[in-house]
Amino acid sequence: MNKLIELAKISFDGENFDDAYLKYSQLVEQDFDNTEAWIGKGLSSAYLATPDGKKFKETEICLEKASQNGLSEIQKEFTRLWRN
């Protein structure tokens, strides 16, 4: 799982959001309580959003799931900024 999270981060940082979304989705499937994977999936989804707003609802749901799992202070601030 450590390799998959690293690969997901590399894809996200490289702006390959399709691949990052798939990898973070795999991580969520493996560990439903993985806060970092929920955040990564949500943010990847946001970058894949279309002008009509598709995928933004998924972003909101993923970030909400992450917050239910418990967030670090940095993660709380980041998701607060994203929602505003």
**Overall outline:** globular
* Sheet having the most strands: none
Helical proportion? Answer: over 70%
Radius of gyration: 12 Å
Amino-to-carboxy terminus distance: 32 Å
Helix count, DSSP H or I runs of 4 or more residues: 5
Which blocks of ≥5 consecutive residues have pLDDT under 50? none
Instruction: Give the tally of β-strands.
Output: 0
Structural class: mainly alpha
Secondary-structure element pattern, one letter each: HHHHH
Strand content: under 5%
How would you state the average pLDDT, rounded?
85
Describe this structure in words.
This protein has 84 residues and is mainly α. The chain has helices at residues 2-13, 17-30, 35-47, 56-69, 73-83. Helix 2 (17-30) packs antiparallel against helix 3 (35-47) and helix 3 (35-47) runs antiparallel to helix 4. The longest helix has 14 residues, at 17-30. It is globular. The model has no long low-confidence stretch (mean pLDDT 85).
Summarize the structure.
The protein has five helices and no strands. With 84 residues, the protein is an all-alpha fold. The longest helix has 14 residues.
